[in-house]
């Protein structure tokens, strides 16, 4: 078992605010890679 197996998010939903760029985008991509269904929320300035 690898370390990443302990952090699997299969069957979970993740909401990421500010996910259109920068840190938020990286977090959203990481959550998706870990198996989560990701909802990305951002606002237009």
How do the strands and helices of this protein lay out in sequence?
Elements: E1 13-17, H1 22-33, E2 37-41
Protein name: SDR family NAD(P)-dependent oxidoreductase
Organism: Halobium palmae
Description:
A two-stranded parallel ribbon has the order 1-2. The mean pLDDT is 90. The chain has one domain. It is of the alpha+beta class and 45 residues long. The protein is built from 1 helix and 2 strands, in the order E-H-E. Helix 1 (22-33) links the parallel strand 1 and strand 2.
Provide a compact summary of the structure.
Strands 1-2 form a two-stranded parallel ribbon.
What are the key terms here?
45 residues; alpha+beta; two-stranded parallel ribbon; 1 helix; 2 strands; NAD(P)-bd_dom_sf; SDR_fam; SDR family NAD(P)-dependent oxidoreductase
Relative strand content: 15-25%
| Biggest pleated-sheet summary | 2 strands, parallel
Shape: elongated
Identify low-pLDDT runs: none
